[in-house]
Amino acid sequence: MKSISTPPQGTLSEAFGDSPVRSEFLPFHQPWIGNEERNEVLDTLESGWLTKGPKTVAFEKQFANFIGVPHAVGTNSCTAALHLALVALGVKPGDEVITTPITFAATVNVIEHCGARPVFVDVEEKSLNLNVELLEKAITSRTKAMIPVHFAGKMCHMDEIMRIAQEHGIKVIEDAAHSLESQYLGKSPGQWGDVAAFSFYATKNITTGEGGMLVAKDPELAERVAVLSLHGLSRDAWKRYSKEGYRDWEILEPGFKYHMADLEASLGIHQLRKVHVFWEKRREIVNHYNHAFQEMKEIVSITREATINRHGYHLYVIRLKMGDRLTRDQMLDRLQQEGIGVGVHFRAVHLHPYYKEKYKIPEGTLNVAEKASEEILSLPLYPRMSLKDADDVVRAVKKIIVSSK
Ligand SMILES: Cc1ncc(COP(=O)(O)O)c(C=O)c1O
User: What pLDDT digit, counting tens, does each position of 282-311 carry?
Assistant: First the structure.
């Protein structure tokens, strides 16, 4: 493939042809579901027990082992796990919760659902993770918790975050939606914070369609989350219709309908067994992209190869540095015309209408996040892709850039 730094000889069509790079659209993401998952789902359907039951309990145990924490509670989404974490840690109206603007709606919405105030701290230029150097300035007497997000699979500086949190008596909830396989200084999400919340949404590193998991070190906290996830009913109320016989239950506090179902766990049990295979395949694609884009001054890659700390390789995020010659939104349109699926992770949350209107954060306050919001886009990255697919992505990116110079 031609290097972008050497402009193509002849016309664009000589270099790249006249038709779109892909005749068959390459989706932004496709899950990898095998026969093991299919058979387990069928087994669950035939068992007659579809909701929370033995398979959810088995998946919770396997997940806790995988992460290396004593407790895991299955939920129907990462959003639910984050919400449960805030409630179980006692976040109430009037409290403040520090988080990053470069995240999905869920991280911040759950703070609002508790009646607390999200306090945004700007991100680092290179990783787009929360900038720990700005953290202490954001802490007030009302700060109850922090939600660092391990963006794209690269973990935040958890040693510093935990030091600051412990000094100020602040609880830490790791948003680990992107970072199932990630490690920082040899420790996984959940081994650092009070809790960590994982996502098994359809586009995540492993999927149960919809689903999530909360992990915790403290048994009482995990127990409270489990109770809250099933309406606040007393322990093991989920067994009430099982063959163990009907058990009376009590409402201990008003909880939520947030638990995982055995249908989801049927997928999760087998997806978890494949986690390393999936990770290796994504790593190969990341290396391929990095190599192809390394000489291009128009592109800065956020997702780099893991060094000491293990990267989860959830998203391949690039920043486009072409100013008005080619905006990010034009790049998104053009890539789709070339047959390549794309995403944006994320436009900063405080720029969205609800948060803009409510908190009126002056422009420039979260400067790094605001600038990144206009420049970032995500390219396909999943184990079902081939290196030929990745080549098509690179070719499309190069074609668009060359034609916009
Ligand atoms: C950073 C982050 N946090 C939380 C979530 C919510 O995950 P779920 O869809 O499982 O609720 C997502 C989902 O995309 C996410 O990207």
Answer: 999 999 999 999 989 999 999 876 677 999
> Residue 134, exposed/middle/buried by CB under 10 A (0-12, 13-18, 19+)?
middle
Q: Read off φ and ψ for residue 254, nearest 5 degrees.
A: -70, 110
Residues 141 and 165 in one domain: yes
Residue 171 known to be catalytic: no
Which of 257, 273, 289 is the C-terminal boundary of a domain?
273
Of all atoms in ligand 1, which is nearest to the CA of residue 200? 10
CA–CA distance, 236 with 258 (Å, rounded to integer): 15
Beta bridge partners of 343: 378
- Domain holding 387: CATH number? 3.90.1150.10
Tell me, what's the pLDDT at 306? Answer: 66
| Sheet with 143-147, side-by-side order of all strands | 71-75, 212-216, 195-199, 171-175, 143-147, 96-99, 117-120
Q: Which two tokens stand for residue 308?
A: 């000491």
Instruction: Give the atom of ligand 1 at the shortest distance from the alpha carbon of 201.
Output: 10
Contact between 189 and 176 (Cβ < 8 Å) = yes
Instruction: Tell me, in angstroms, the distance from the centre of ligand 1 to residue 226's CA.
Output: 20
Q: How many domains does the chain have?
A: 2
Instruction: For residues 315 and 225, state if they share a domain.
Output: no
Please tell me the distance from the alpha carbon of residue 304 to that of residue 66, in angstroms, as a whole number: 24
Spacing, Cα 8 to ligand 1 middle (Å): 41
Full domain range(s) for residue 290: 12-28+275-342+380-404
Q: Is residue 136 part of a domain?
A: yes
Identify whether residues 307 and 245 lie together within a single domain.
no
For helices 35-47 and 262-273, the axis angle rounded to 10 degrees is 150
Does 357 fall in a domain?
no
| Ligand 1 midpoint to CA 365 (Å) | 25
Instruction: Give long-range contacts, CB 8 A cutoff, 24+ apart: 240-249.
Output: 242/49, 242/53
- Residue 193 in this model has a pLDDT that exceeds 80: yes
For residue 235, pLDDT beyond 90: no
